[in-house]
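for the writeup, i need someone to sanity check this before i put it in the appendix. the sequnce is what the collaborator sent (i think, or maybe the updated version? ugh). structure was predicted straight from it, no edits. if anything looks off just tell me and ill rerun, i have time this weekend
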Amino acid sequence: MLIVVICTPQNDCFHLIANAMHPDRHRKIRSLFDEYIEMYASRDDRLVTHFSENFSGYTGGGNFLVKDRDEWVSITRQDFSQVQGQIRIEMLDISMQDISDHVVVVTAFFHIHLPVPDHVLSHEVARLVLIFRLEGEDWKIVHSGISIPYHLVQDGEVYPLKQLQERNRALEALVEERTKALHESEALYRLLTEDAMDVLWKTDCNFCITYISPADERLRGYKPDEVIGHHVFDLFTEEGIAIVTEAIRKRQSAEQDGTELGFLTFEAPHRCKDGRLKWGEVFSKPERDALGRITGYHGITREITERKQMQDEVRELAFYDSLTNLPNRRLLNDRLRQALAASSRSGCYGALMFVDLDDFKPLNDRHGHAVGDLLLIEAADRLSKCVREMDTVARFGGDEFVVMLSMLNTDKARSTLQAEVVAEKIRRALSGTYLLEIKRAGQADTTVEHQCSASIGVVLFVDDEASQDDILKWADQAMYQAKEAGRNAIRFYQADGQH
């Protein structure tokens, strides 16, 4: 379950959730976010300069993913044209999450006050997810997703202005009619939550569910009588139960120390009746008696399955090569750093290999890049089958790959022999004939037969004798020694220059 702090304008509170970030990065991202919100509220066209060329986004009034930056710029200008006056953003909550040193996710909850007399939309909680990525020296927005739980948007609209007034009058009449017939506060509470897109819930002090809104049936498929009376753990998968248990432990520990945590927020996978899994962002707060003792809990759960999927996609973009699905240079550097740290603790050697495909350019020149890509995909698969699961195969760029073997042996001679065996296995695997099947629409499939080999440079490392840059540089030098020796060869780097 996940919990967000929803503060009212009257108490004017603002809750910032931020994981451990570098202070400078924290301030930079927060400043860029504030600048973006200010530009959006004032309808400032300059905010489009914050978008990356490699941009995607979900619109508040649409259910499709925009993958073209120019199209997103057009939608933004349509938004500005539709609502030309100043928009007021009433910020409720904001959180930041590091995906890596170069990718930061900012999630914000707020009310949108449009310059119109009707205020239905301003009562809804909007969520904005901005994903910032460091591109060169600048942070750019690579993904934007705004979620407004309101579904009256017509074609050509960003906000549902055409039906907003009609909907507002209908809701006001409905509230007036039903309020007259309701006298108990619990019945009123149920009425106000019937049409909510998010799931509202309450539990007793033992975490047994005492109320859950109809949105849960729409989200997970369970009827209220299948949920009420059950422990909250029944809502979650095994992974979710572990997450909730940790949240409960954190609160209990704080309570024992005399600290009241108030709201807690976490994300957890939920079970659906049809066997599917959906992620929920849960905002939870305790209910207390006059003595301050916890008598139960209440909160809101918002579905974030698409957001979690987007985070996974961002992670793929940040750390994996899109063609071969191998780790990219950034992830390789991180794993090399970890391997050096592990070597420092264990005293075991590791080995890093630069693998460059011979005779790759002629294939590209003769048959085109599409066929070259097929060879790279096949080579990546062959490389992966030559190493252990604990080892790393990465695409360094072009037709260059890097293989990292960790935790070999504390004896250098034995480690060298182990690395040599793997390098020879790789050389043989990559030198086998490639049969590349080309599929073209409206044409018969054809097969290109290509013979390829590899030049491999190997360097052993241990403890912190050398930096990551030195290790990569030495392996690259050894690889060029292999090419100078006639290609389809293996060379080890040695400090005295003998290979």
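The first helix runs from residue 23 to 41. The CA atoms of residues 242 and 309 lie 20 Å apart.
thx in advance!!
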